[in-house]
Amino acid sequence: MPIYHPSICTQRDPKLLVDCGAHILDLQTVVKDGILGGGGGGVIATDGGAQKLDLKEMIEELESSIEVPSVFICPISLEPMQDPVTLCSGQTYERSNILKWFSLGHLTCPTTMQELWDDSVTPNRTLHQLIHTWFSQKYLALKKRSEDVQGRVLELLDSLKKVKGQARVQSLKDLRHVVTAHSSVKKMVVDNGGVALISSLLGSFTSHAVGSEGVGILVNLDLNSELKKNLIQPTRISLIADILNEGSIETKINCTKFIKMLTEGDASTIENVSSLSLLVGLLRMVKDQRHPNGVTAALTLLRTLCSNESIRKQLVGIGAVAKLGGALSGLNAESLESALYILDVLSSLPEGRLALKNCEDTVRNLVKLLMKVSEICTRFALSILWAVFKLAPEECSVLAVEAGLAAKLLLVIQSGFNPELKQRSAELLKLCSLNYPDSIFISKCKLTRTIQ
């Protein structure tokens, strides 16, 4: 930590000096040469004249977004100083922090731990002025960038009203980049009619390029219920489903998140945003495990959509059981929980249970997942197996036991899982044993290996 000398700070004005390591520099040189990234500043022009910027407000707004020079940091709180004072030891601290140190009975310098012969503090006006100047320059630069960005947003919104073709695509792309890079302009886009304007571009004859960029903007905005309602139109939803099926992985994820956003807070909209094309596209995303983020997004939306009974029937009808069951082995924990939840919901339907019975790979994968990931995944897997066993106990129990179910059930019973889960496991184990002589079933349970 640089040492500040009180005598220097109070006797040399206007050319105040500050000790920066091994060099003694006057404040004007430090600011002029940009040694600490500074520049002139400290005031902002208003209609009533120049107004001095408040240091506390600037620190609060800037501290999390910039790297503050260590010379401005109080060694006690590790936060930028607003009222720096220097001790007789030459060390500088925030006034409130060092006074609190003294109030606790300490008569030493917190940094050097040397005993102080004088507990008085001297305002370090040089450092205070340097801190204020540095933060002012950063603050004014931030405000200028913000104003430039806001102006750019208005310019792009205005251009979207006039341009067509590739120029429209480029304007949308530029607006998407601004919105994703600067969260401060999101409200501005909404307040200036951006949502209605972009929505008007999404229709039956909209190109996928325009649609992809439009959705990429809308999914990053905060939309109220009225705006969402206006977006849920058949032609727009149909366009989004088409884009989801044919776009890049980024576009697919944006479309998925956008539809999820439209359904939040209003379950009655679920059927309005769903279509066979959408469901097919989501299952394709789940199958394409090269993109885990896409898999997670697709399963999250499917989990929401399958709360509707007619959509559950559609999912079973397009082979969702086999597709989800076949994907289980390659999913991460988050996606796995969603996939099992969906399969559990589908197993509540007679046609869902029949599809599970006919999908041997799904049954085997469910057995493998028991006691492997989490208690909630085990619970879902047991619930699905139970639904299938009730439909075809002999056929399914033989398949499951050959896959190692009996040993897994014993592990669940011996685990610290909740009693209801253990009871379900015991019932399944009993159901499995009905198809085997005792001696054979015991060997199937692999008791020796389980105990080990």
From TrEMBL:
<dbReference type="InterPro" id="IPR016024">
    <property type="entry name" value="ARM-type_fold"/>
</dbReference>
<dbReference type="InterPro" id="IPR003613">
    <property type="entry name" value="Ubox_domain"/>
</dbReference>
<dbReference type="InterPro" id="IPR058678">
    <property type="entry name" value="ARM_PUB"/>
</dbReference>
<protein>
    <recommendedName>
        <fullName>U-box domain-containing protein</fullName>
        <ecNumber>2.3.2.27</ecNumber>
    </recommendedName>
</protein>
<dbReference type="Pfam" id="PF04564">
    <property type="entry name" value="U-box"/>
</dbReference>
<keyword id="KW-0833">Ubl conjugation pathway</keyword>
<dbReference type="InterPro" id="IPR013083">
    <property type="entry name" value="Znf_RING/FYVE/PHD"/>
</dbReference>
<keyword id="KW-0808">Transferase</keyword>
<comment type="pathway">
    <text>Protein modification; protein ubiquitination.</text>
</comment>
<dbReference type="InterPro" id="IPR045185">
    <property type="entry name" value="PUB22/23/24-like"/>
</dbReference>
<dbReference type="InterPro" id="IPR045210">
    <property type="entry name" value="RING-Ubox_PUB"/>
</dbReference>
<dbReference type="GO" id="GO:0016567">
    <property type="term" value="P:protein ubiquitination"/>
</dbReference>
<comment type="function">
    <text>Functions as an E3 ubiquitin ligase.</text>
</comment>
<dbReference type="InterPro" id="IPR011989">
    <property type="entry name" value="ARM-like"/>
</dbReference>
<feature type="domain" description="U-box">
    <location>
        <begin position="67"/>
        <end position="141"/>
    </location>
</feature>
<dbReference type="Pfam" id="PF25598">
    <property type="entry name" value="ARM_PUB"/>
</dbReference>
<dbReference type="GO" id="GO:0061630">
    <property type="term" value="F:ubiquitin protein ligase activity"/>
</dbReference>
